[in-house]
């Protein structure tokens, strides 16, 4: 055709790139880790030893959740305006309010969980800079009586409930995609539920990985009962997410409507992430199922492989959800090819730096707030035997 009138299809491009894939991925991990923390606080007391570690692991992800959005914004220096001029009809403004609620809740939890430790470290720490920081973090509160610690514990329960609600509200992005009708891939009521379950599985897998790493770093014995409990949650969360994804696809194939045409059109473009999601999920389910039958180092290796597989599979699912839905032209007459660039704010290198940011921050947070008790020599101050988690 030598000339064309009007639009030539496909008539759009991929506006949401790899950074917007990372944003719901971080939100998923936060939701899952906070849920595991809430389970340890309200239900499974066997997970109490992990509470500090989960907080230390979750806090960097909460701080990093803004990075993909800020890098994607055309004017990131104006992002603070969503806080000073709130607009409840704006999805981004609502995110800012919910995000601040989550941030302040986890900051409050960290302070109350570590309050007794701050008092102890402010008087025993030999590093003058850290000692000063701990002294400031005590906020002048040195009451370590049982009654004060019991009050701390009650406040922690309230903050945990607020944090859990805020974390689940952060998953509103899944519901946002679920109600968008402009693309058949998003036009499904199953998508939000599948998104949440996938996030719960990813967060639980991250808790398992961090538990193995921190235990090795601090020379702590790995409690296989804790591993089995969390692995059980991750197994059923992942099974639910995978089953819902398959049911959704099978339903489209059976109906053979326009949504199935969309999936078939993009099947070649998304062959790799689809294969990663399916193979990774099945591999993780298999390893999690049979890890309960072994013990020792073999159990830890199987759980570690399964956890990494879950994280990779969930990332592939997020890629399909964000990128895949944009590959199909609005007219359904063609599709757009997408390959992320290597450089630039939407490039692969920028994405890798954003993905690494939580772990860099985690090392810094761990330096000042170790999740396990440090070995110190006896001084004139005797460390309180009652902690917040024991109250």
Automatic annotation (TrEMBL):
This is Polysulphide reductase NrfD. It is found in: Cell membrane. The lineage of its organism: Archaea, Methanobacteriati, Methanobacteriota, Archaeoglobi, Archaeoglobales. The keyword Isomerase does not apply. Keywords: Cell membrane, Membrane, Transmembrane, Transmembrane helix. The keyword Coiled coil does not apply. It is a multi-pass membrane protein. InterPro entries: Electron_transfer_protein (IPR052049), NrfD-like (IPR005614). It comes from Ferroglobus placidus (strain DSM 10642 / AEDII12DO). It comes from the Archaea. One of its GO terms (cellular component) is plasma membrane. It holds the Pfam family NrfD. The chain crosses the membrane at residues 14-40, 52-71, 91-114, 155-177, 189-213, 233-254, 270-290, 302-328, 348-369. Belongs to the NrfD family.
């Amino acid at each position: 055709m030598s000339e064309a009138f009007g639009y030539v299809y496909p008539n759009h491009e991929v506006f949401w790139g790899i950074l917007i894939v990372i944003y719901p991925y971080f939100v998923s991990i936060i939701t899952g880790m906070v849920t595991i923390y809430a389970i340890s606080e309200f239900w499974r007391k066997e997970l109490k030893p992990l509470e500090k570690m989960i907080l230390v692991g979750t806090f960097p992800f909460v701080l990093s959740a803004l990075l993909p959005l800020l890098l994607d914004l055309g004017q990131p220096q104006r992002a603070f305006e969503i806080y000073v001029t709130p607009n409840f009809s704006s999805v981004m403004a609502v995110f800012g309010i919910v995000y601040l609620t989550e941030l302040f809740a986890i900051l409050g939890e960290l302070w109350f969980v570590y309050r007794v430790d701050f008092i102890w470290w402010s008087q025993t720490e030999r590093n003058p800079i850290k000692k000063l920081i701990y002294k400031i973090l005590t906020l002048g509160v040195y009451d370590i009586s049982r009654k004060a610690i019991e009050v701390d514990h009650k406040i922690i329960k309230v903050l945990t409930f607020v944090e859990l609600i805020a974390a689940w509200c952060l998953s509103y992005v899944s519901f946002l995609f679920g109600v968008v009708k402009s693309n058949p891939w998003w036009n499904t009521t199953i998508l939000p539920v599948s998104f949440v379950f996938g996030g719960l599985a990813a967060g639980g897998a991250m808790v398992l990985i961090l538990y193995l790493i921190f235990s090795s770093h601090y020379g702590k014995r790995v409690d296989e009962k804790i591993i089995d409990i969390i692995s059980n949650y991750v197994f059923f969360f992942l099974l639910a997410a995978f089953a819902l994804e398959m049911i959704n696809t099978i339903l489209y194939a059976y109906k053979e409507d326009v949504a199935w045409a969309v999936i078939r059109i993009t099947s070649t473009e998304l062959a790799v992430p689809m294969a990663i999601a399916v193979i990774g999920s099945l591999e993780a389910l298999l390893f999690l199922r049979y890890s309960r039958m072994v013990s020792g180092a073999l159990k830890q290796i199987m759980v570690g492989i399964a956890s990494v597989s879950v994280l990779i599979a969930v990332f592939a699912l997020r890629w399909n959800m964000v990128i895949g839905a944009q590959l199909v032209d609005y007219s359904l007459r063609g599709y757009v090819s997408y390959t992320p660039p290597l450089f630039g704010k939407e490039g692969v290198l920028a994405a890798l730096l954003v993905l690494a940011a939580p772990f860099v921050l985690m090392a810094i947070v761990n330096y000042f707030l170790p999740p396990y008790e440090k070995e110190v020599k006896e001084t004139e101050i005797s460390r309180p035997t009652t902690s917040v988690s024991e109250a």
